[in-house]
């Protein structure tokens, strides 16, 4: 089942994937069998499976036995085991092989960073997925062998637990792994920045160096990339501020005093120390032109050989698409693949599909996947504390999913998670051969709820998109947003925080506020607003730079910029204090009367 990973060409890996997609259902059962063969004796599984011998069992009998004996679980169920691993316990708790590394999930989706087991399997599947995605991309957008990627990637700090286990984000472990180097060699594309830059631990210095080196090597750059689109945006927003300094460095072969970390200085100066006044002049004149046009088409103008921009642009990254298109001009945006710290899930096999429509074909060897059918419970109110907006059916295996149905994903991984609810909602939109293609819908957790109202991240995103259309008419742009359900006062109400760029009249912002209040279509919300059991929506405009402060707060607490996602709703007191402190204007909606 393994592809010819270390010597294979694009064709090999694509035909491997075509083959396992054709036999997806069978491959899934073999994947489950393999996971159980490796780990049947671990403490967690013994608790549920006991001494059952499944070696001679048929695949389908094994599958139904497994799902009948092992319960669905959440991160909290694995936490005590993971904690024991972190404390240094060597016994086989969730995997037979000892776990020596733990990943920190970004924590920006539910506000709390989680420890997730990381093994060599994690780096191998990452390599496999990146090679597979690169192979599909190169069929549509071929790139020059030996070219460069201007990739905005950032490692977080790694640390050791008291039990000697290395902890860091999954991307950090991957960038430090041999697989990261193998991927560059095998896809024959190399990043512009040396390892010292990626792992500097200071995102501002890393961003500066990525941009400087990207420009220094501009004619070799074949595409621009990052893990999540947010990092590309934040890099170019910074570029608008310090491009002149970069030009000086290129011209003189020097490095700005901004860069203070000796190892980074040395690594960068080793590359750029020959003065290049000709290139500096070129960059300078292009930047002067770009500045006049508000940096429209920055990427193709500065990197004329770039073929596309590649990054995760779906889910909570979708609101950045307008800005990304602004920078990318007519270059295609290729939406990157779907995964989590827990496991990779799907690959984008249609790179020319616009990000709004992209779907991900499940890779059936990565984990054993189950799907909990979710149905919207339009008018149903469960008690008064609505936890969720969905009615669940029993989980189904990959072979039984249906087009048009939404599901929550459940993972059984090679890294010791068994029937683990990931908390993502996806919709099956088709099949690639026999493996489902998934649209990412949202995190399952409700983010806005005061009483009987239920709104997800996706609902909020649609509402904010409507409000910001009005903003765009007055030539201003939404930089970032978040929200909070204020339940401390009676009646409770929603607060949406906006950071905007450009000047906007107050009456326009009042209209944006009204439009957003009127655009929440959830029945519970509409009814509650009509009866004033939810008060008028409040729009708070925050000072420029507030969302950068929020990101810095996450980074100071151990998150890596590569995995950062602005929380779309928050109850975190520190964030709320930042947001409220920097609020400069407040509006209350009149959508349901004055
Ligand atoms: P992390 O917590 O850093 O492991 O982030 C994983 C989460 O990011 C997933 O569970 C999804 O909610 C989200 N995510 C990952 N890939 C994508 C994608 N391609 N589109 C939308 N959301 C994604």
UniProtKB/TrEMBL annotation:
Residues 459-573 form the GH3 C-terminal domain. Coiled coil: none annotated. Keywords: Ligase. It comes from the Eukaryota. InterPro entries: GH3 (IPR004993), GH3_C (IPR055378), GH3_M (IPR055377). Residues 361-443 form the GH3 middle domain. GO terms for molecular function: ligase activity. Belongs to the IAA-amido conjugating enzyme family. This is Auxin-responsive GH3 family protein.
